[in-house]
Each structure stands twice: as C-alpha cells, then as structure tokens.
Design brief:
Shape: elongated
Strand content: 15-25%
Helix content: 40-55%
Largest sheet: 6 strands, parallel
Number of strands: 12
Order of helices and strands: EHEHHEHEHEEHEEEHEEHEH
Radius of gyration: 19 Å
C-alpha cells in the first residue's frame, strides 16, 4: 500500500490517479498537526497496522515564496521530518519531495531553503540505514491550471488578457516535466528501492527564452513577447545540466517545447473561471 500525504496538489493528485487500487490519500485533517514537536509517536501509532512494505509519499508542500517563512518551515520541513521519524519507527518506507534548485542556487528563497533542509535530513536518515528517499524534481506542468506565481502561470495570464509578457533575457536553464512523466519516474524509483537523494532529471533542459518563444509562436502571439524587458536574476542556473540517473534510463519524457506548448494551448481553450 502507498499512502500519499498531500493528495490535493498537482503531483499528489497525479500519483493517486496512477494506481487508485494501491494508493490511499490521507485526509488533511489526519496529518494537519503532524508538524508539531512530539508528533512522531502519534504518526508511528497511526501506521502501526500498515501492511509490511508500505510506503509513505509526502507530496504536501508550500511552493509560493511570497508566503510566510514559518509556513514553509512547518509544511516543507517539520511535517515531512516528523513523518520520517514516525513512519520509519513503524517500519515503513518514506519518500519526500524537494526541488533541483536545492543544489543550483547560492541564495535560496524560503521554499528552496526549507526543501534543502529536508533533503539534508532525509540523506542523513538514509545514510544511517533508514528507508528514506528524497526526490528532487524539476518544474512540473499538466494536471490542471499553472500556479499564478510561476512562469507558466504568468505567461498564460498574459496570453488570456492579450497583453505583453515581459521577461528577463531568459538564459536560465530549466527542465519542464509533464506531471504524468514524473509519476512514472516516481514509480521507477520505488520499484528500484533507491534511498537517499535522487534527482528526477531527463538531462535535456531548455532556456526560458526558447520555451517562451516556442509557446508564443505556437499560439500565434509572438507580438506579445518582450524578452529582456526585465533584469536577469543574479542567482539562477545558467550552465548546469543535471544528468539522467540510471534508474530512469528506460523512461520516456515528452519533449518540453512541444509538451508545454500543447499544455498552454489547452489551458487557453478552457473558459475562464469567474471570481
């Protein structure tokens, strides 16, 4: 049995839909207070009756860097850290989720910093012999509307409103993964029994400029794209290409430029939700 904590998010929903017979998403009320000190015993008791070999996937997370740092700390670090303590005590395997930016920026925001803390904690537990895996993911798309604070969300908003989209020179390197492709990657890691930190890379990044130019051309609105209208972020990834790990060698990832363009076109074809 696989237990998902955070089944309402993009990745959590996709994981739950992939194998509904084998996956249970816990109600948020069950784990709402599991971030607190001393919760490990309660968590261990909750999972005491789980089938041997069961796995806990902690997909819950706060992504928006504008949210209070204390919220990032509770949801992105303290909650999964307590779950690692309690679920491992009950004999279960735990998989947490972070971001590749943990290893790519020198001055992280609250989101990246708390995910990096979680990665270090998971790696320490794995090195000590616990069945703990921390998956570092790239940028996800698919499975619903893009988050409004992210690049694709801002891009879609500009296209819907027919207004110029201002961006940096766009030299930043990114891997964009369809969420269903990453679900397949998660299952491959689970089958292989990998522990420690695993980066879910396909090894074929593109620049944000290439991505934006491809999307705006695909929807016939290249006139709205303003590359270089905003300054270049000083602390980002401009050169590092992360290799595909051996555990993902046989998986197929859809090409980012075509995949993201199709996704954006599908989003633009949907009626806008009224506030």
């Amino acid at each position: 049995m696989i237990y998902v904590i955070g089944g309402r998010g993009r990745l959590g929903r996709a994981i739950c839909a992939s194998r509904p017979a084998d996956i249970t998403a816990l109600d948020r009320a069950v784990y709402a207070e599991w971030w607190r000190d001393g919760a490990a015993g309660q968590i261990a008791r909750f999972f005491a009756a789980a089938e041997p070999g069961s796995i806990v996937l902690v997909t819950a997370g706060v992504l928006d860097p504008a949210l209070p740092a204390v919220q990032h700390q509770r949801v992105n670090f303290e909650l999964p850290a307590r779950i690692i303590d309690g679920a491992c005590k009950a004999g279960l395997r735990v998989v947490t989720f972070g971001t590749v930016m943990e290893r790519l920026v020198a001055h992280p925001n609250a989101y990246i910093a708390t995910k990096a803390m979680l990665g270090r904690h998971a790696a320490e537990r794995a090195a000590a012999g616990d069945a703990v895996t921390h998956l570092q993911v790239h940028t996800l798309y698919g499975g619903g509307e893009p988050a409004p604070f992210m690049f694709l969300g801002q891009l879609c908003c500009a296209l819907r409103e027919g207004r110029p989209f201002e961006m940096s020179p766009g030299r930043q390197l990114r891997e964009y993964h369809h969420v269903d492709d990453d679900v397949a990657a998660v299952h491959a890691v689970l089958v292989a029994g990998e522990t420690g930190i695993v980066t879910l890379s396909h090894g074929d990044p593109c620049t944000l400029r290439d991505l934006a130019e491809g999307v705006f051309a695909a929807v016939g609105r290249g006139d709205l794209l303003r590359i270089g209208a905003r300054p270049e972020p000083p602390d980002d990834n401009y050169a590092t290409m992360l290799p595909r790990p051996q555990v993902l060698e046989n998986l197929s990832f859809r090409p980012a430029l075509e995949g993201v363009s199709d996704y954006v076109k599908a989003q633009l074809s949907k009626p806008q939700q009224q506030a």
